[in-house]
Amino acid sequence: MRLRNPVSGLVVGAALLVGVPMASDAAETPALPPCASVPHRSVEVHLESPGHWSYDHYLVWCATDGTVEWTVPVVTHEVVSGSGCVWASNEETQRPDGKEVTGFAMGEFWCGTEDYEYPWSVLGVSPDGRSWVVDKGVDRSSAPRG
């Protein structure tokens, strides 16, 4: 895995090296906290292993008076029928970075081999409604994380 950004290196490195426990994923959009304005939706990251699985991640956030009040990660996944793959788990974290917020998400798939696949993405959002992909990728390991 090659990280092109120090922020993503910090976030992904911490998650992978410390062995962040993977939590179960809820494929539904979570309930949103109250927002004084209309919440924003970030760009979406789509990662896939064709014929096996797909993984999507975006952020919904509220900005008021030049401040990001909250962010809610949304992750969906699909396992291709007959692929032999299993969705194992997902982990998300958000981190304030000045007025902007960086959101990280990483999923875990096992496809009946000795390898596990971990799609991950790092998104940035700002109070003015802008969003961008900081970095993304798929990590592979011969042992489960966490």
TrEMBL record:
Highest taxon of source: Bacteria
Signal peptide stretch: 1-26
Annotated organism of origin: Actinophytocola oryzae
Keywords for this protein: Signal
Taxonomic classification: Bacteria, Bacillati, Actinomycetota, Actinomycetes, Pseudonocardiales
Protein name: Secreted protein
